[in-house]
C-alpha cells in the first residue's frame, strides 16, 4: 500500500485464532521499524482482535478506532473504555 502511494496505509483483518492477532502485531512492528516511510494503521477485528485495538500503538499502529454509539465494525470498543485501557498501558 505504501509503495502504491497511500497517504496513510491501513489494514484491518479478521483473525481466526489468537496467533493471527500476534502475527498482525508482529508484522506491524516490523513494518514500523524497518520499512515504513509514513504512519500506518493496523488492527484485528472481532472479540479476539480487541487486544490489537488497545495495544496497537505499542507495536507501531498510528491510531485506532473507538465507538461513540453503534459499532461500525466487529470488535470496536466504546471510546470511553478504549481511552481507559490505553491510559493503563501507557
Summarize this structure briefly:
The chain is an alpha/beta fold. The chain is 48% helix and 13% strand.
What oligomeric state best describes the polypeptide chains here? Answer: single chain
CATH topology: TIM Barrel
List low-confidence stretches.
Answer: none
Mean pLDDT: 94
The SSE order reads EHEHEEH
Strand numbers in spatial order across the main sheet: 1-2
Structural write-up:
Helix 1 (18-35) runs parallel beside helix 2 (46-59). Helix 1 (18-35) links the parallel strand 1 and strand 2. The chain has a two-stranded parallel sheet. It has a two-stranded parallel sheet with strand order 3-4. It contains three helices and four strands. It is 48% helix and 13% strand. It has one domain (10-89): Alpha-Beta Barrel (TIM Barrel). The longest helix is centred in the first third of the chain and has 18 residues, at 18-35. It has 90 residues and is α/β, with parallel strands linked by helices. It has helices at 18-35, 46-59, 79-89; strands at 10-13, 41-44, 66-67, 77-78.
Topology:
Elements: E1 10-13, H1 18-35, E2 41-44, H2 46-59, E3 66-67, E4 77-78, H3 79-89
Parallel strand pairs: 1-2, 3-4
Search tags:
90 residues; TIM Barrel; 4 strands
Amino acid at each position: 500500500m505504501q509503495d502504491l502511494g497511500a497517504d496513510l496505509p491501513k489494514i484491518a483483518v479478521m483473525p481466526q485464532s489468537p496467533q493471527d492477532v500476534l502475527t498482525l502485531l508482529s508484522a506491524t512492528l516490523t513494518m514500523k521499524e524497518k520499512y515504513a516511510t509514513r504512519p500506518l494503521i493496523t488492527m484485528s477485528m472481532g472479540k479476539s482482535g480487541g487486544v490489537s485495538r488497545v495495544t496497537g500503538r505499542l507495536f507501531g499502529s498510528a491510531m485506532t478506532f473507538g465507538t461513540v454509539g453503534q459499532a461500525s465494525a466487529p470488535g470496536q470498543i466504546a471510546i470511553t473504555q478504549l481511552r481507559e485501557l490505553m491510559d493503563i498501558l501507557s
